[in-house]
């Protein structure tokens, strides 16, 4: 591998827009930290959690789940055929988690007090598990990434980190398994408040399973974008194989979900024609059933099919988290909430920062090179 | 046994004395007043109003009743907010009150979502806002403490009609049921006896509790049980899953190595 020390970052119009969005975001972040949540957001006593928790944290963590599912498949189960996507998937995940930590930090009122749960243990709270696991996992991912980073900078550390990798990888799969389900666990206490279409004692496994199957979906969207931008393609067979793992999990998820609805006598709500019922149908049909059909038919043998699968699945998981946070809670919480301009600007800005960081790292570290080696070998 | 208050809604005259007494005792700032369709003012609790009286008109044929219900933290026996707080900023004291410790609070607002009665409020205007709610006139620091000095909470002391009664929870429950059973006007329900596993504030009423927006569909199973049964599984899941991952890691690695060796040997043979 060539170890050039010079750093590159090409300027394009898209990147200028992203930098602009990121800059506005940082200004608003400054405003929010200086003047408080009430001034920057539309949150209120009825709606204490809004866009930042719902999208930046709950959805962000799920979409960043591609890292742990890939680590499990490639590094724990040693399915070497999926190696070409491992590094970029884990990079997206790392960036995702850093943004989640950013979003969480902005959402807490006493932000200078963020470290408190590290010493004052409210260990019976599900949020305690989420907090510990997300922070530790972000740290683990930074260490995992340092294996890649030390190929270029601080090279003497490379061998030491490499020896540590198996331990990091195992902890790095263990922690997300715990907190992905705990994010669903957060809503167990909303019994009687969260609509019966979503509230279930099975919420933790549902969140865990969906974060697992959305991983390959994110990867297929991401590799198609990166494929265009960086002119390299992951072999179709690799992507298709990966998506089959996703699809199998989605089948189990769907069966469990239907079984659970019938068991809790909540199935009647599905076709009730209410807002909740229709949003649930949209989530399941567009986000689970159609992707399953694409996955197990000839449609998944084309790049277009793969990208459609990915986009729909990602959409379904985003909608699911939004439904839990907003649609399913709106009746019991009452009142009004729609994110303020500043909330939108911060959420969009955080994503822009993530995209910029991804591009910078891909262009300066050995993230995609491995693909080329692999393509030469297999094709 | 823990302390409790029994509220007899049929005895409340809506004077709001409890509301004022609470503000004065706890040094809470006045809220900006506004008119709404009822005489409740403010119409809901806030970061600066820990208790407020709800005004409702109940029509039953020709009969019209005016009823008033004081609302504040219910001080659950097994509070959802305490189990939700990840920094132990909310704690249940053995005397009964659910107490908030601001210096431990991170401001995540999960307690607001966890509470089945929508009690905790937030100081939204402040740069560094805190949660706020009724402390049952119990203050571990001493300044606002009444309970440990043997005094009734400020609101109860002020009540001119005896609509609020302070005492041991068990005794108040007996009293409440005696009242209900001896007088047909009462709804046959002590609100707070079983709601969310039982609360330290008990209500009896001669009009339906729904009138005042009191949730009657609250589960009688203590809410912490839902999450704590899940949390209890964590160590077991973590250990066994960790062991399984390590096992799979070593097994599949070795399997691939063997496969590679066999693959490498073949051409040589």
Describe the structure.
The complex is a heterodimer of chains A (379) and B (269). Chain A has 379 residues and is mostly helical. Chain A has a single domain, classed as Formate dehydrogenase/DMSO reductase fold. Chain A contains 14 helices and no strands. Chain A is globular, with a radius of gyration of 21 Å. With 269 residues, chain B is α+β, with helices and mostly antiparallel strands. Chain B folds into two domains: 3-78 and 132-222, 2-Layer Sandwich (Alpha-Beta Plaits), CATH 3.30.70; 232-268. In chain B, the strands form four sheets. Chain B has a three-stranded mixed sheet, covered by helices on one side. In chain B, a hairpin with a 2-residue loop joins β2 and β3 (63-71). The termini of chain B are far apart. Chains A and B meet through α2, α4, α7 and α8 of A and α2, α3, β6, α6 and α7 of B.
Architecture blueprint of SSEs:
The complex is a heterodimer of chains A (379) and B (269).
Chain A lengths: L12 H23 L1 H4 L10 H13 L2 H11 L6 H25 L8 H4 L6 H24 L8 H28 L17 H28 L5 H28 L11 H21 L7 H31 L7 H24 L4 H10 L1
Helix pairs in contact in A: 1-13, 3-5, 3-12, 3-13, 4-5, 4-8, 4-9, 5-7, 5-13, 5-14, 7-8, 8-9, 9-10, 9-12, 10-11, 11-12
Chain B lengths: L2 E6 L8 H9 L26 E9 L2 E9 L8 H5 L5 E3 L5 E3 L9 H5 L6 E2 L8 E2 L21 H5 L5 E5 H14 L18 E4 L19 H9 L1 H35 L1
Parallel strand pairs in B: 1-9
Antiparallel strand pairs in B: 1-8, 2-3, 4-5, 6-7
Total number of strands of chain A: 0
The CATH superfamily of chain A is identified as Formate dehydrogenase/DMSO reductase domain
Helix/strand/pairing category of chain B: alpha+beta
Largest interface: A-B, 59 and 57 residues
> Architecture of the largest domain in chain B, CATH level 2?
2-Layer Sandwich
Protein name (chain A): Polysulfide reductase
Transmembrane segments (chain A): 50-77, 89-109, 121-143, 164-189, 201-221, 242-259, 279-299, 306-324, 344-362
Main location (chain A): membrane
Membrane topology (chain A): Multi-pass membrane protein
